Amino acid sequence: MKNILVIGAAGQIGSELVPALRNKYGKNNVVAADLNTELNAEILQDGPFYKLDVLDTDSIVKTIKEHKVDTIYNLVALLSARGEADPQLSWKINMGGLVNLLEISREYNCAIFTPSSIGAFGPSTPKDKTPQDTIQRPTTIYGVTKVAGELLCDYYYKRFGVDARGVRYPGIISNVTAPGGGTTDYAVHIYYDAIKQKNYSCFLSEDTSLDMMYMPDAIRAAIDVMEADPARLIHRNCFNVTAMNFTPKEIAKEIKKHIPEFEISYNVDPVRQAIADSWPNSMDDSAARDEWGWKHEYDLKSMTDDMLKVLKNR
Ligand code: VAH
User: Fold this and answer.
1) Before 238, cis peptide (omega within 30)?
2) How far apart are CA 281 and CA 116, in angstroms?
């Protein structure tokens, strides 16, 4: 049975990954950690939680030893738009945290999951059906840390045998913890505003096409890639995974099927529009499907059905 540490447990992915991992591996086999202690109560009450700084090696090692951790989920990162506001902090946290956790994984023989992103691609990357292996010249500090992270994780695997794996996530939509500082966050906020005020002002232009994924699929990808048979893996850091692809106009049209009076308007943020324009329109995730059986379950229709049902009930 695995003993897992999730660091960055308070974030958009972490706050849903921790309960999913605890359901699968046992509540006391999954340690949640974050600097932010305003976690949702379920995470705090359901199993061990530590206030940890990803840059504090000694405290992380103490936790690893106490819980005999053999697998680390590293979810600590400043996302794309927030990173552009403070590139130095983004490098310090995204890369400083990763280097720390890779060294700890090497020394204490832990497997480690670190997600990458469509943000690891840039304007010179083929935009449609972006291949698994292709040009990666991102123009955001977030993307630079993601490409550097992918290369460093592969290096630690090849040089030290660290079992490092990851996936390149598209924008992730969820209804538990709102994302912070991302460029794809519009696709989360639009559902909340549709319920609350029947209208949404979008910071991306109406035809901005981006790959997206519903959180249940993202959680399954994070678990399945770490459970995959290592003998089948040709790639490791990181696998393209995607589920759907839409524009603000298309998601608004889907919401209107449930809330006919819903209206979208546009107030384009040039910073986040430039970031979105530098990313692919769609990814080819055949390597993940071939090497570890990745398959998405939610599309725009089923995600919208579920998001609006959950948010209306709340
Ligand atoms: C962001 N949600 O917008 C993150 C993600 C694919 C985008 O990495 O920065």
Assistant:
1) yes
2) 17
In contact, 75 and 8? CB cutoff 8 Å: yes
Q: Assess contact for 75 and 6: CB atoms under 8 A.
A: yes
Domain 173-211+245-279+298-313: top CATH class = alpha beta
User: How close is the Cα of 172 to the center of ligand 1, in Å?
Assistant: 7
> pLDDT tens digits, residue range 141-180?
999 999 999 999 999 999 999 999 999 999 999 999 888 8
Number of Cβ within 10 Å of residue 37's Cβ equals 10
- The H-assigned helical ranges of 198-260 are 215-227, 248-256
Measured from the Cα of 170, ligand 1's closest atom is: 6
Please, what CATH class does the domain formed by 4-170+213-240 belong to? alpha beta
From ligand 1's centre to the CA of 258, what distance in Å? Answer: 27
Contact 154, 236 (CB under 8 A): yes
What are the sequence ranges of the domains in the chain? 4-170+213-240, 173-211+245-279+298-313
Residue 210 CA, closest ligand 1 atom number: 6
Predicted structure pTM score: 0.97
> To test the ligand 1 pocket, which listed residue (12, 76, 80) has its Cβ within 8 A of the most ligand atoms?
80
